[in-house]
Amino acid sequence: MSEISRDEVAHLATLARLALSEEELETFASQIDGIIDNVSAVRSVDADGVEPMSHPHSIRTTMRADEVEETLTAEQALDQAPAAQDGRFEVPQILGES
C-alpha cells in the first residue's frame, strides 16, 4: 500500500493552487492510495509476448489513404462567396473592432 499522506496531498494542492478543505484532503489521500494500488496491481501482470494495442478491439483503421488530390483554387473557392476581399472571405464584424 502506498499510503499517500494528507500532508502530501496538501502540498500537491498548494502546487496546483487548489483550496481544499480538511475533509477533501483526507478523501483525496485515500482515493489516490486506491488509484496507486490499482496501477500497481496492473503492473504486476505478466505481459511478456503481448502485442501493444491502440484499441481494445481488433479493428482495421478507418482512416483513408493519404493521397494527393486536386483541390479548388482560391478563385474557385471565392467565386460563390457573398463577399470577398484581398483573396479571402469577407465576414461581418462580431466584436465591433475595425
TrEMBL record:
Pfam hit, one: GatC
Record InterPro entries: Asp/Glu-ADT_sf_sub_c (IPR036113), GatC (IPR003837)
EC main group: ligase
Transmembrane segments: none
Region (Disordered): 75-98
Highest taxon of source: Bacteria
Reactions performed catalytically: L-aspartyl-tRNA(Asn) + L-glutamine + ATP + H2O = L-asparaginyl-tRNA(Asn) + L-glutamate + ADP + phosphate + 2 H(+); L-glutamyl-tRNA(Gln) + L-glutamine + ATP + H2O = L-glutaminyl-tRNA(Gln) + L-glutamate + ADP + phosphate + H(+)
UniProt keyword terms in alphabetical order: ATP-binding, Ligase, Nucleotide-binding, Protein biosynthesis, Transferase
Biological process per Gene Ontology, one example term: regulation of translational fidelity
E.C. number(s) listed in UniProt: 6.3.5.-
Subunit structure: Heterotrimer of A, B and C subunits.
Purpose of the protein: Allows the formation of correctly charged Asn-tRNA(Asn) or Gln-tRNA(Gln) through the transamidation of misacylated Asp-tRNA(Asn) or Glu-tRNA(Gln) in organisms which lack either or both of asparaginyl-tRNA or glutaminyl-tRNA synthetases. The reaction takes place in the presence of glutamine and ATP through an activated phospho-Asp-tRNA(Asn) or phospho-Glu-tRNA(Gln).
Protein name in UniProt: Aspartyl/glutamyl-tRNA(Asn/Gln) amidotransferase subunit C
Gene: gatC
